[in-house]
Structures are given as structure tokens and as C-alpha cells.
Specification:
By secondary structure, this protein is mostly helical. Helices cover about 80% and strands about 0% of the residues. The two termini are about 30 Å apart.
């Protein structure tokens, strides 16, 4: 087994740019996921397609991202993380170019499915950081990578809205293609190929089984509200998901080289981290999803602010800035007390943010404060699971293990979207002849997300502690760090 080769203390410019370049790639991924949102109301007119068909421009990215993230993570562990990272960003660029050149809904949906490959950027980057950076820099770098999801989403929405408002909608995709090309070039130049590999044969059967099972599960969740939760199609999808994923689990346990090592998932530090990621994804996603609808509601409702999509993006922007500012704080908390404590604190802060949202969702400044508090908690909560996983799995399986963690977060977001839609649909009142969610419905959605955040906090508190962290705390209590003796020995 090859071992990590840390970047030396005196590093050339290319090595010093490794973390910024990977963070840029993470933000590109988040921007790619959000840029289509300002277009959704106008796409039926622009493409001549039905609203149901247009919604697949979001669904296709979600499904392909969920399937490809663990698959590309495993491929990165086996064939080279930088190589697979460049391929994922390249597929994102290809999808952007296809969207920029076409108005046909079939081509657009296919292109958005290709862009879903970019969801693997964050787990691949985290694995590269573990392989390339010295331990004292890994925590802060991983925290920054985890925060890029919220930072990119907060930046992407207002920028995309401005482009759509003042230019042809195809220009937006040319812009993402250009940024993606810069990202591919920067990764190729600044990121070294990791020597850590997990040799073997790729589990094609496991990849196909996971793909079919996840598509059935997520498609049922995403379309359940539209098709009816008790409809034959949705029930058939859920039944198929249970059957296929059950067979997949059985096959993975018996495979000599599985796509996902389920024995690692059975470890409490890994398995509970995945559970916490699912719940945190649910809790976080409600913040942006519900806030966007709340502030755009007509003023005639008595609570809505009637903001445009550009103004809505600016409301969410402070939350992204908070995530950037607090990413080094989360690394310090993890270094001092362990990532499990960071996860518990982060999810508790998310719940506190929803308390603020429930207390006042009428005044703009309170909406911004509440959303920023949720963003602060998300920074802490998102940075912790990768660190828990890095400390619990072999170096050759970090990309695939973190890929599964991102997958669980994606499933949580899909569940949140379905749950929020179900709540808001049941609590509407007519405004100017059109049904609009009531304030009570929005507050119920916030309360639901807050409860889920508390469940994530409970899961975090049950995660076993890191022995290494305990050693660090004991050493600090004696006035020195574990590395002090090693440094003294080297000096001698």
C-alpha cells in the first residue's frame, strides 16, 4: 500500500495553490447546481416544453449526482483522484456547452445529467487533501472544502439571476463553461496526482445495482408529491428501491472488492456520520428552499416581501459569507475537541437558527440573521463528517467513503424538498386568485427542519470519540502538544 506524501514546508507556487484550486472546484459544483433556478419559471416558454419536463433539468442533475458521486469516488481511489476529478469537471463543462448551444429540452436534460458528475468534486478533493497535506493543515482545508457547497450556492444564485435578467439565458451557460474550463486547467496545473491507490477490479455489478436502486428511491421521493404518494408508480419505485438495494447490500457483503465497503459503514464513527449527514442535509436545505419562497411571496399576503430573484439571492448571500468566515473556526473546534463535538455544536446552532426564523419571519433583517445563523451551524456540521471518516477508514478508501457521505447528504436534501412541498401545499390561501403558502405553513417547515437538526445533534452525540483527539487534549493539559516531542527529537 502506498502512503501519503505530504507537501513539504517550503513549497513551490503550484503546491501552495492546491487548496484554493480545489476550493474553487467545490464552489463551481455548487454554482452549477443553482444556476438553473432563476430560469425555471421562463424555461417552458423558452424551450416550448411543459413545466413537468422542465423540472427534469433539476431532477436529472440530482439523480446523476447521487449515482455518480460514490462511483467516481471509488474510481478515484483505484485509478487516481486527480484524474477522476478532472474528468468530473470536464463533464460539467461539456454539459454547460451543450446547454449553451441548444434550446431543445431533451438536450438540456441530458446536459444537466452530465453536470451531475461534478457532485463528486468535494469528496475527491477531500481525499486529495488528506493525501497531500500535513496533518496540521488538513482540518482547516477540509472545513473550507465542506463550506464551498454553501458558499457557491449563495454566490451562484444572484450572479445567475443577474445574467438571466440582463442577457440571453444561454450566456449563463457559456459563463459556467468558461469557469469550468478554468477549473479544469487549474486542477491539472496545481494538483498533484495522489500516490495513494486501492488496486483491484472495479465492481461494475455493484455500480449498476446502486444506480438502479438510487434512481428508484430518489425518483419516488422527488416525484411523490406530483404523482401522488399512494400512486402505483411511486409505490412501485419504492418497492423496487427496497428490493434492488437489498440485493445490492447482499452482493456488496460477498464481493471481494466491493464498490462500497459496508464493513466500514458498520463502524459507528462511519455509519453514524452518514446518518448525521443525511439529517444535516435535510435541515440545511430547508433554509434556502423556504427562505427563497418566503421573501418572494406577494406583499398582499401580509408577510411576503415581493422580492425579485436577484434580491432573493442577495438575501441569501450573507449566509454564504458566514460559511466562508466560520470554516477555519470549525477546524479549530475539531482540533481541540474532536469532529464529533463540532458536528453536535453545528447541528444545535442550526436548530437555534430555526428558532430565530420561527420567532420573526416578517422583518427582512431578522430573516437575514436567521438564515445566517443556520449557515453558521451548517459550516460546523458539514466540516465534521469528512474528518470523522478520514480518521476511521484506510487512506485508499477515503474518496469512496466520503462519496457515500455526500450521497447521504443528497438524499437528505431530496427528502427535505419533498417534505417542504408537502407541508406548503397543505397550507395555502388564495392571493389574487392564486394559491400562496401561508405564513403558518412556512413556520411549520422551519419547525420541521429544526427538529431534524436536533435529531442530527443526537446522532452526533452518540458517535464514539477519537482517541487521537483525547491524546491531544491530555498533551495540551500538560502544556505541550503530541508533536512537541517529535519536533524536539528532530531538532536534536
Amino acid at each position: 500500500m502506498n502512503h501519503p506524501v505530504p507537501i513539504p514546508a517550503t513549497r513551490p507556487l503550484r503546491d501552495r495553490m492546491t487548496v484554493p484550486v480545489l476550493a474553487f472546484g467545490g464552489m463551481l459544483m455548487a454554482v452549477m447546481q443553482t444556476v438553473v433556478i432563476p430560469l425555471l419559471p421562463d424555461l417552458p416558454r423558452l424551450t416550448g416544453a411543459s413545466p413537468g419536463a422542465v423540472s427534469w433539468m433539476v431532477t436529472a442533475t440530482l439523480l446523476s449526482g447521487a449515482v455518480l458521486t460514490p462511483v467516481l469516488g471509488r474510481a478515484g481511489d483505484m485509478y487516481g483522484k486527480r484524474r477522476v476529478l478532472v474528468a468530473a469537471l470536464g463533464l460539467m463543462v461539456l454539459g454547460s456547452v451543450m446547454c449553451a448551444l441548444s434550446s431543445h429540452i431533451g438536450v438540456l436534460i441530458t446536459a444537466r445529467a452530465l453536470q451531475g458528475a461534478a457532485s463528486a468534486v468535494v469528496p475527491l478533493s477531500i481525499s486529495i487533501l488528506r493525501d497531500e497535506l500535513p496533518p496540521e493543515r488538513t482540518g482547516s482545508a477540509v472545513a473550507l472544502m465542506s463550506a464551498t457547497v454553501g458558499i457557491g450556492a449563495a454566490l451562484g444564485l444572484p450572479l445567475a439571476a443577474l445574467i438571466v435578467q440582463y442577457a440571453n439565458w444561454h450566456v449563463m451557460f457559456w459563463a459556467t463553461a468558461g469557469l469550468g474550463a478554468v477549473g479544469v486547467s487549474a486542477v491539472w496545473w496545481a494538483v498533484r496526482e495522489s500516490p495513494v491507490r486501492e488496486p483491484g477490479r472495479f465492481d461494475v455489478t455493484g455500480a449498476l445495482g446502486l444506480a438502479v436502486g438510487l434512481v428508484c428511491l430518489l425518483l419516488g421521493i422527488v416525484e411523490g408529491g406530483e404523482w401522488g404518494w399512494g400512486s402505483p408508480r411511486v409505490l412501485g419505485l419504492f418497492t423496487g428501491a427496497v428490493g434492488v438495494l437489498g440485493l445490492w447490500w447482499w452482493q456488496q457483503l460477498r464481493s471481494r472488492q466491493p464498490l462500497v465497503d459496508l464493513r466500514l459503514v458498520a463502524r459507528p464513527r462511519v455509519g453514524l456520520s452518514h446518518v448525521a449527514a443525511l439529517l444535516t442535509g435535510f435541515a440545511f436545505y430547508s433554509n434556502s428552499l423556504v427562505t427563497a419562497q418566503l421573501v418572494q411571496a406577494p406583499e398582499a399576503t401580509g408577510y411576503g416581501l415581493g422580492l425579485s430573484i436577484v434580491e432573493t439571492g442577495l438575501v441569501l448571500l450573507p449566509g454564504g459569507i458566514v460559511m466562508l468566515v466560520f470554516s477555519p473556526v470549525s477546524a479549530r473546534v475539531s482540533a481541540a475537541y474532536g469532529p464529533g463535538v463540532t458536528l453536535a455544536i453545528g447541528t444545535a446552532v442550526i436548530a437555534l437558527g430555526y428558532v430565530v426564523r420561527i420567532a420573526d419571519s416578517r422583518d427582512l433583517w431578522m430573516i437575514i440573521v436567521g438564515a445566517a445563523v443556520v449557515g453558521m451551524g451548517t459550516t460546523l456540521a458539514y466540516s465534521a463528517p469528512p474528518m470523522l471518516i478520514l480518521g476511521a477508514v484506510p487512506p485508499g478508501q477515503t474518496a469512496s467513503a466520503n462519496g457515500v457521505n455526500v450521497l447521504m447528504r443528497t438524499v437528505g436534501q431530496a427528502m427535505c424538498s419533498a417534505a417542504v412541498v408537502a407541508v406548503l401545499v397543505r397550507h395555502t390561501s388564495p392571493v389574487d386568485g392564486a394559491p400562496v403558502p401561508t405564513l403558518h405553513g412556512f413556520l411549520l417547515a422551519f419547525g420541521m427542519a429544526g427538529v431534524v437538526a436536533l435529531l442530527a445533534c443526537t446522532a452526533a452525540l452518540t458517535i464514539p470519540g477519537d482517541p487521537a483527539t483525547g491524546t491531544t487534549r491530555r498533551a495540551r493539559a500538560r502544556g505541550r502538544t503530541p508533536g512537541a516531542r517529535d519536533e524536539a527529537m528532530e531538532g536534536a
